[in-house]
Amino acid sequence: MEEPEARARSSLRRSLAVYLALFLADAAVISYLVSLGLEGVRYVTLSVVGVVGLLLLYQVVQHLRDLDAPLAESVGHVTKKWTRADLFIAMQGHYIAVDRAIFRIPPEEWAHAAPGAYVKVVHLPNTFGFVSLHELAPPAPQ
Description:
The protein has helices at residues 4-36, 42-66, 107-112, and strands at residues 72-86, 91-98, 101-105, 118-123, 130-135. By secondary structure, it is α+β, with helices and mostly antiparallel strands. It folds into two domains: 4-66; 72-135. A five-stranded antiparallel beta sheet has the order 3-2-1-4-5. The chain is elongated.
């Protein structure tokens, strides 16, 4: 069985490849629009494609920052637990909120994460890529 950190880093590299390819395609569209000359409706198209490009670039930078970054930990109570259809309706995503951070986690981990449980989530620091979930004893009331 693959180590959880290795699985998370592998997923990070796959996501980076997808975001980078989309960003490069976006940059190609921008350069094509500029080569045609900016007039009329091309300003609107360039604006929309440019904003999408900036969002893709942000994702690429966050993924690059996580490549060699040490793992981070978030500790707190599971405040919410839900599922939703990802990628249209082909894939079911499982999510938990730990205090104010949201994590997409595997279904087998999601089944054990009870709302209100005190947990530690080990994750990548910038993209919040899930590595592992550990249930902890709640802190003593003060």
